[in-house]
């Protein structure tokens, strides 16, 4: 009986934790990291501030948990989506489209911008932003290396240079969002990025002068 009670308690704790993460994600998406207080999050979730602190010692800990959970889910979803696409340019297009959609969904770009503003003064948030950057670069690097193995990307492509440039280009969209907001033409941004990357990959086969 004690074991069953323990399992029920664990399940309840998991459910409360999940509710807190979901509510906090909604709150952060509206006001960003800096503009969201712990009482705001507690109100969104429908729990007391004290209960929230029992699960997460600080707002930064909560933000970190959200980011780690979302990063893992996003990379798994993207990998599944791209695995069924044979055409390399379409796979590239779908990958960029996925990234842009994540920024648009729940005002994700605003959350990232708020976290970047907080990062210089908060080690935990800075570490999350570093992890996000590393995850993006690892995915891009893997995409390019897989392309080389499949003969879709020129073997002469400077993988590390391209990885860094592509990751920085994608982060530039976050800045563009800060300026334009929902008025940013994401399909046009996607097409521009895909055209540039496709041209750059093709040019890597050109002989040096």
Shape: elongated
Flag low-confidence runs.
none
Distance between the termini: 78 Å
Question: Compute the gyration radius: what is it?
Answer: 20 Å
Binned strand content: under 5%
Please tell me the overall pLDDT.
82
Task: Give the helix tally.
Answer: 9
**Proportion in helices:** over 70%
Largest sheet: none
What does this structure look like?
By secondary structure, the chain is mainly α. Helix content is 79%, strand content 0%. The protein contains nine helices and no strands. Helix 4 runs parallel beside helix 7. The longest helix has 30 residues. The model has no long low-confidence stretch (mean pLDDT 82).
Short structural summary:
The protein has 209 residues and is mainly α.
Task: Provide key terms for this protein.
79% helix; 209 residues; 9 helices; mainly alpha
Q: How would the blueprint of this fold be written?
A:
Elements: H1 2-31, H2 38-45, H3 49-55, H4 59-83, H5 88-104, H6 108-118, H7 123-149, H8 159-180, H9 186-203
Helix pairs in contact: 1-2, 1-4, 4-5, 4-7, 5-9, 6-8, 7-8
């Amino acid at each position: 009986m004690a074991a069953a009670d323990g399992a029920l308690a664990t399940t309840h704790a998991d459910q409360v934790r999940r509710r807190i993460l979901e509510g906090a994600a909604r709150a952060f998406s509206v006001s960003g990291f800096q503009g969201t207080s712990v009482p705001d999050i507690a109100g969104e979730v429908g729990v007391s501030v004290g209960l929230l602190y029992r699960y997460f010692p600080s707002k930064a800990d909560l933000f970190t948990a959200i980011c780690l959970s979302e990063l893992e889910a996003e990379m798994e979803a993207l990998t599944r989506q791209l695995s069924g696409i044979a055409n390399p340019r379409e796979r590239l297009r779908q990958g960029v489209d996925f990234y842009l959609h994540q920024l648009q969904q729940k005002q994700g770009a605003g959350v990232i911008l708020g976290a970047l503003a907080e990062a210089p003064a908060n080690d935990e948030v800075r570490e999350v932003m570093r992890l996000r950057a590393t995850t993006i670069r690892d995915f891009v690097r893997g995409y390019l290396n897989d392309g080389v193995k499949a003969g879709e990307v020129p073997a002469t492509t400077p993988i590390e240079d391209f990885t860094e440039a592509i990751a920085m280009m994608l982060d530039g969209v976050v800045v563009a969002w800060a300026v334009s907001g929902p008025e940013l033409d994401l399909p046009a941004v996607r097409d521009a990025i895909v055209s540039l990357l496709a041209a750059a990959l093709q040019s890597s086969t050109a002989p040096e002068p």
